[in-house]
Write a structure and sequence with these properties.
There is one protein chain. The chain has 2 domains: 2-168, Rossmann fold, CATH 3.40.50; 200-359, Beta Barrel (Elongation Factor Tu (Ef-tu), domain 3), CATH 2.40.30. Helices cover 29% and strands 28% of the residues. It contains 11 helices and 17 strands. It has helices spanning 8-15, 41-55, 71-75, 87-97, 109-112, 116-127, 149-159, 178-186, 190-197, 213-216, 340-359; strands spanning 2-6, 29-33, 61-67, 101-105, 130-136, 162-166, 170-171, 174-175, 202-208, 222-226, 237-246, 259-264, 267-268, 274-276, 279-292, 306-311, 322-332. The chain is elongated, with a radius of gyration of 23 Å.
């Protein structure tokens, strides 16, 4: 997968007429466009339609046109964590979905003010060579969202591109949307979120030093800091989970590995440009986690909630390493216990339920 980036400074010069866009020589292209936060099943249907059109010979190169920074970060409405997919996660998923090119623009106020006709002509046709556009039923491009389905179809007749608009994706009779997934996560409903995403909700994080208290009671945990602080997490509580860890952290002859996962985590530079696909082979473990304020050991609870994950039957050193957590099932609310014995009794019960949830998924294909 190739990535083409337009950073904000360069984009401002282009929009101001000081710099000309150099076409990336893609030949004829088909484009799907949007922020694609979550890359949920509705988004995946757009990518599938794009790939299908390419296979039918409609164009030479499939392009996903998206924004490195979510528009809410520029236009407002982004208080606190809200991203379903961070930039690295989005690129990883697109690599797996088989897109030829990702064209990534830094969303800006100037771009938001651009008329949809100029946007389509300048960026999609002149720059990327678009002859085919696939969009969702609620498409609205350009200033004041004037580029709707009717306007884009008429513009296609004028400028010579074909527009396909897909019907709304639904689950249990309800529309699939990023907002609906956020609502499910806020309720701790991992099953609903997974059904709309087409995969388990997950977070990539780095293991930071902890207090070591879990190991003293037989439940060692890894404290996990999400790689992006804007990443949305489910509601606080105790969850069953699966965890992908690098293969080299696992002790020799260790048990508990459920299987292996081939998944890229792209390497990025400080500007957000992808420098390598970062393909990796991860070992998969079952586990359980607490996301919360740890009130049993901290009077009044921690000011900020944290993720503490226990991997079943794991032996190895995770400190400072990157791992991926899949949130499978919410087991209960976080609560304060009167002592270690009461906590241990509950942890044994949580472990039993979490192991059942993990076992119900079976082992991944080799």
């Amino acid at each position: 997968m190739r990535m083409i980036r337009l950073n904000e400074d360069y984009l401002e010069r282009v929009l101001g007429g000081d710099t000309a866009l150099a076409p990336p020589q893609l030949g004829s292209s088909g484009i799907a466009l949007g922020s694609f936060d979550g890359l949920h099943r509705g988004h995946q249907e757009l990518v599938a339609a794009l790939r299908s059109a390419k296979e039918r010979g409609r164009f030479a190169t499939s392009v996903l046109f998206t924004f490195r920074r979510h528009p809410r970060l520029i236009l407002g409405g982004a208080d606190g964590p809200f991203l379903l997919t961070t930039w690295r996660e989005k690129l990883s998923l697109l690599e797996q979905l088989g897109v030829d090119v990702v064209a990534a623009i830094d969303f800006s106020p100037a771009l938001a003010r651009l008329d949809y006709r100029r946007f389509v002509q300048h960026f999609l046709i002149d720059w990327l060579g678009m002859v085919y556009l696939v969009a969702g039923h609620d498409v609205h491009l350009g200033a004041d969202r004037r580029g709707d389905e009717k306007a884009l179809a008429a513009l296609g007749d004028e400028l010579g591109y074909t527009l396909d608009v897909l019907p709304e994706a639904t689950w249990q009779g309800r529309p699939i949307s990023s907002s609906a997934i956020r609502n499910a996560l806020a309720a701790g409903d991992c099953a609903a979120a997974a059904a709309m995403l087409g995969r388990f909700y997950a977070v990539w994080g780095e293991v930071s030093p902890g207090e070591g208290r879990g190991a003293t009671i037989g439940y060692p945990t890894a404290n996990v800091q999400p790689l992006n602080p804007r990443k949305l997490l489910p509601s606080p509580g105790v969850y069953a989970c699966r965890v992908q860890v690098p293969g080299d952290v696992v002790a020799k002859n260790a048990n508990g590995v459920l299987g292996f996962v081939e998944e890229p985590l792209p390497e990025m530079d400080r500007h957000g440009d992808m420098v390598a696909a970062g393909a990796g082979r991860w070992r998969l473990y079952g586990g359980m986690l607490n996301f919360g304020h740890v009130p049993t050991f901290h009077a009044g609870g921690l000011a900020l909630p944290r993720i503490e994950v226990h991997l079943f039957d794991f032996a190895g050193n995770l400190r400072g390493r990157t791992l991926k957590i899949e949130w499978l099932q919410r087991l209960r609310d976080e609560k304060r216990f009167d002592g270690v014995d009461a906590l241990l009794s509950q942890l044994h019960h949580d472990e039993h339920r979490a192991r059942q949830a993990v076992a119900a998924l079976g082992r991944p294909a080799a």
